[in-house]
Design brief:
This protein starts with a strand and ends with a strand. It has helices at about 20-25, 60; strands spanning about 1-5, 10-15, 35-40, 45-50, 50-55, 65. A hairpin with a 2-residue loop joins strand 4 (about 45-50) and strand 5 (about 50-55). The chain has a 6-stranded antiparallel sheet. By secondary structure, the protein is mainly beta. It has one domain: Ferrous iron transport protein A (FeoA) (SH3 type barrels). This is Ferrous iron transport protein A. Keywords: Iron.
């Protein structure tokens, strides 16, 4: 399965998180939640989770499995 770090702009559903991290839960990134990737160029991934726009480092994004 692909991780968020592998995906381009689009709408994705979180399938699982492979490394528990309280930051994900604080941001609302939990299995079943929707993530809208706005930009996945160089640097952090810019995404929208709920009503919040976030910048997520690639190191953390590789732990978020999406479909």
């Amino acid at each position: 399965m692909d991780t968020l770090a592998d995906k381009g702009p689009g709408i994705y559903t979180v399938v699982k998180i492979t490394k528990p991290c309280s930051k994900f839960y604080q941001l609302g990134i939990v299995p079943g939640s929707k993530i809208i990737v706005i930009s996945n160029d160089r640097g952090p991934i810019i995404a929208r989770v709920g009503n919040c726009k976030i910048a997520l480092g690639r190191g953390l994004a590789k732990y978020i499995v999406v479909k």
